[in-house]
Amino acid sequence: MDSLHQRRKLNTAHGKLETPLLFPVRNVGKRHKDNTPEYTSEIPELGVGMVNARAIREHDDLWGSIHSGSTLRSEMGVPEDTILFADSGGFDFRDGGVSLDTTPEETLETQRRIGADIYGTVDIPLSTDRRNKVNNERISENIEHALTASDKHEGDALLYASVHGYNPDTVRNGIHYLEEHGDFDGYALGSLVPIRTDYERVTKVILAARRATEKPLHVYGLGGIVYQPLLLYLGVDTFDSTSFIRSAGKRNYLVPGFGGTELHTIESLDRLPCACPVCGARSLDEVRAKRSLLTRHNLWALVTELRRFRYMIESEQDIESYLDLRFEGNSVTKRAYRLAKQQVRGLT
Known about the structure:
- The chain is about 40% helix and about 15% strand.
- It is an alpha/beta fold.
- It has two domains: about 240 residues, Queuine tRNA-ribosyltransferase-like (TIM Barrel), CATH 3.20.20.105; about 90 residues, no CATH class.
- Helix 6 packs parallel to helix 7, helix 7 runs parallel beside helix 13 and helix 9 runs antiparallel to helix 11.
- The protein starts with 8 loop residues before the first strand and ends with a helix.
- The mean pLDDT is about 90.
């Protein structure tokens, strides 16, 4: 059980990554200039970001600037040593979105040109209405896209194969097949956001992936305040999230152990229950008045959760005892954790 919880050091072209780690999703490409609040210089371990390769390539002005010699990092306004994970933009191809309009070769070239450190292979999300024929076709296509990328990939960037499946056996077999026929530095699980409330299925799929490979495992899109402790418990190395921005847009204040609280429901407090650099010296009214402050606090909340878990690993504390307390205050997450613990222990 303890083998699920590892600390890794990954070498990239722009520096070393220490896991477990959150990749905040950047708006660059879809909303250029990048309007994601600055955090890379404020939060020591977050000199990182997740970007959408397709969105960057489709933004004419941004793509033109990069072709003219500008770097993506300068366009984002972040230090040049910021470590970037570039996915293929697969979420754009979900049901109701656009049709697949890229190839593994084109995506690799985009990822290379923007100077990404980790490449996610071209992927098409699964259908959420459980159309088995359609999903089986997409699973096969994603495997083929990954193998093509493996054949064509050159350079020092890490290549993660994007893997999809709503059945543990499908995910396990897919990773085993990719391990045998391709050359990948890690794996990235997709299609889980639409089924995120089905905790039992999601945790079974993640655990199957974790047990199928010893290489780094990333989960797309599930790095919010509720899911992050579950991902860490299941041995996920890295994950990405937009929750710090989306929650702030709804004026939700994230608190580890409690989830999100709408600030308009809090009236009598002068100070918020957090000592992060945003909240420590500011009143409730000051934080509530500025979305940018709330966004930055929410990111600190996610990092606080991450730091606590890292501490538990390094100090060789009983992780399950900590999480038993961590999830006690929320019936939904408590049930999800209980299901995850049963699976980790092999009881289900």
